[in-house]
């Protein structure tokens, strides 16, 4: 065993990542059906082949009329119109509206020929097979014009957009039933540790359940990746080597990332490819490694669950989002809040401090060592203390990143 000779700064690690990311080939595209397309990244502009609406339609329940016939109407000067039929959504009126006539019309129904406005039912009163106009309308009133929502040829969503629920509604409304999207980066999650039992197993004796597998899998999914979770890999160099060589776009190794005698991953990555960064001036997560094996980016994440989460957030998540065509920045909302107690940090390393929101502000979580996973569950978010800072006094305003 040998300790870390020197630690890279967080900036150095991120700039190495930024420098290699462009050399990773753009992921291929794939087609997905509308019902599977939410949260995917568009790889092609979506251009409308149709006008929406494709016909002049009524925006109100009322009567299709000629606006001219309603001019001068008031409650004291009611103008009668003869009702000659009805038109419903999907069922147009077959005839034509002439002077002195009206057609009953419902919202979404096509405006009949001859009519040029919709007279809302509130501006009328029934009168046998006639209707009395109490209030006039102008030409085009309450009529949705052809293409007023979307014009044929409009780009409704452009390359690189993340598809939101409302985007799927728009795609559907222009008759598009699938989208060309960026393939999800495939992220192989290698959980190492002889002490580990499969996720969700009751801890027994000296063995503990894998906390990082389900956590990383959820983080990868959040960041648009496709997690591949082959099960626990023992602390055995032969088996770990094989697992590292399996196909993927990104490999996350949980545990065994440091300089202990069971920590094989750093040496194997250096042997099979490049271990560009090993040991980072940050807390938690200092035994983090970044490298590549052929066309795969490899992240060595410490086994301590808090360190694992923090190292994922600082480096791996950023890369997975970038590969999948997403924004690299953290997906956490940021708020500015007053510290209720001081937050102490050591100069020379970046601190990832978990905090809780209180009525009076935000409070650092007292017991917050890297092995205390519940510190992240109790936390509402975290504060980053930069390397050149000794922390913040009580009362200082700090940026808090809120966990989703
Ligand atoms: P390591 O990074 O392998 O040295 O592990 C550091 C600490 O984290 C040890 O106490 C491990 O037992 C623990 N640990 C490692 N992997 C996991 C995991 N997947 N889930 C929960 N704890 C873990
Ligand atoms: Mg271990």
Automatic annotation (TrEMBL):
InterPro entries linked to this entry: MoaB/Mog-like_dom_sf, MoaB/Mog_dom, MoeA-like, MoeA_C_domain_IV, MoeA_C_domain_IV_sf, MoeA_linker/N, MoeA_linker/N_sf
Ranges for domain MoaB/Mog: 188-322
Gene Ontology biological process terms, A to Z: Mo-molybdopterin cofactor biosynthetic process
Reaction(s) catalysed (UniProt annotation): adenylyl-molybdopterin + molybdate = Mo-molybdopterin + AMP + H(+)
Recorded GO CC terms: cytoplasm
SMART domains hit by this protein: MoCF_biosynth
Obligatory cofactor(s): Mg(2+)
Annotated EC: 2.10.1.1
An annotated Gene Ontology molecular function: metal ion binding
Top-level enzyme category: transferase
UniProt keyword annotations, A-Z: Magnesium, Metal-binding, Molybdenum, Molybdenum cofactor biosynthesis, Transferase
Pathway: Cofactor biosynthesis; molybdopterin biosynthesis
Described function: Catalyzes the insertion of molybdate into adenylated molybdopterin with the concomitant release of AMP.
Family statement: Belongs to the MoeA family.
The protein's name: Molybdopterin molybdenumtransferase
């Amino acid at each position: 065993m040998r300790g870390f000779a020197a630690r890279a700064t967080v900036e150095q690690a991120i700039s190495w990542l930024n420098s290699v990311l462009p050399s990773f080939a753009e992921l291929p595209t794939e087609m997905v059906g509308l019902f599977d397309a939410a949260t995917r990244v568009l790889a092609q502009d979506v251009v409308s082949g149709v006008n929406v609406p494709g016909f002049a339609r009524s925006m109100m329940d009322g009567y299709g009329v000629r606006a001219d016939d309603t001019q001068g109407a008031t409650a004291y000067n009611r103008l009668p119109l003869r009702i000659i039929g009805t038109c419903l959504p999907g069922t147009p009126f077959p005839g034509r509206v002439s002077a002195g006539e009206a057609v009953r019309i419902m919202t979404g129904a096509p405006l009949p020929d001859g009519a040029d406005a919709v007279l809302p039912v509130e501006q009328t009163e029934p009168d046998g097979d006639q209707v009395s106009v109490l209030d006039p309308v102008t030409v085009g009133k309450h009529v949705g014009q052809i293409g007023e929502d979307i014009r044929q040829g409009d780009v409704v969503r452009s390359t690189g957009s993340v598809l939101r629920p409302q985007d799927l509604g728009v795609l559907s409304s222009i008759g598009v039933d699938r989208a060309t999207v960026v393939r999800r980066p495939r992220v192989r999650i290698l959980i190492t540790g002889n002490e580990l039992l499969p996720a969700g197993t009751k801890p027994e004796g000296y063995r503990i359940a894998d906390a990082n597998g389900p956590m990383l899998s959820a983080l990868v999914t959040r960041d648009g990746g496709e997690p591949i979770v082959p099960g626990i890999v023992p602390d055995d160099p032969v088996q770990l080597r094989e697992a590292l060589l399996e196909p993927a776009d990104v490999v996350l190794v949980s545990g065994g990332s440091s300089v202990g005698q069971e920590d094989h991953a750093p040496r194997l990555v250096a042997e099979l490819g490049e271990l560009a960064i090993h040991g980072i001036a940050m807390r938690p997560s200092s035994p983090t490694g970044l490298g590549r094996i052929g066309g795969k980016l490899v992240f060595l994440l410490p086994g301590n669950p808090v360190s694992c989460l923090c190292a994922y957030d600082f480096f791996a998540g950023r890369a997975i989002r970038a590969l999948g065509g997403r924004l690299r920045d953290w997906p956490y909302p940021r708020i500015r809040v007053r510290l209720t107690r001081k937050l102490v940090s050591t100069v020379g390393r970046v601190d990832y401090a978990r905090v809780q929101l209180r009525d009076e502000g935000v409070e650092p979580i007292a017991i917050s060592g890297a092995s205390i996973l519940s510190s992240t569950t109790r936390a509402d978010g975290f504060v980053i203390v930069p390397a050149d800072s000794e922390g913040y006094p009580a009362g200082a305003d700090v940026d808090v990143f809120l966990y989703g």
